[in-house]
Amino acid sequence: MGISIDSKFCHKAWASGFAGISYPLLADFHPKGDVAKAYGLWLEEAGIGDRATVFIGKDGIIKWAESVGPGGARQPMDMLKKCQELA
Q1: Cα 42 from chain centre
Q2: Cα(3)–Cα(35) distance, integer angstroms
Q3: Cα separation of 18 and 71, whole Å?
Q4: Do 3 and 13 belong to one domain?
Q5: Residue-by-residue pLDDT tens, the chain, 87 positions
Q6: Same structural domain for residues 34 and 69?
Q7: How many folded domains does the chain comprise?
């Protein structure tokens, strides 16, 4: 699933630009950033969540995490490889 501090309306608009999103997009909107805070990804001074990817196993334990910062870009192929390694 994907989680961000944006509203469900922002998620819908974002997802419409991509074909084939088959996973749920969850809004960490109100209270704003509670999930980001729980994972240590809330940037208090900026009032935003960090841009990060967190893989959580079926056991609920974080298996891998990477932060790229608010303006950073993720590398989808590297994330896919990491998923395959962890599977």
Answers
A1: 12
A2: 8
A3: 20
A4: yes
A5: 889 888 989 888 888 887 767 788 899 998 889 999 999 999 999 999 999 999 998 899 999 999 999 889 988 899 889 989 988
A6: no
A7: 2
- Total length of the chain: 87
Say how far apart CA 67 and CA 81 lie, in whole Å.
Answer: 17
Q: Rounded distance, CA 30 to CA 20, Å?
A: 27
Helices (H), the chain: 8-16, 34-38, 76-86
Residue with tokens 């940037």: 43
Positive or negative torsion for Cα 11, 32, 36, 59: negative
Structure-token pair, residue 87:
């599977």
Q: Are residues 6 and 40 in the same domain?
A: yes
What's the pTM value of the predicted model, to 2 decimals? 0.76
Which tokens belong to 78?
Answer: 């590297």
Q: What would you report as the CA-atom Rg of the chain, rounded to the nearest whole angstrom?
A: 13
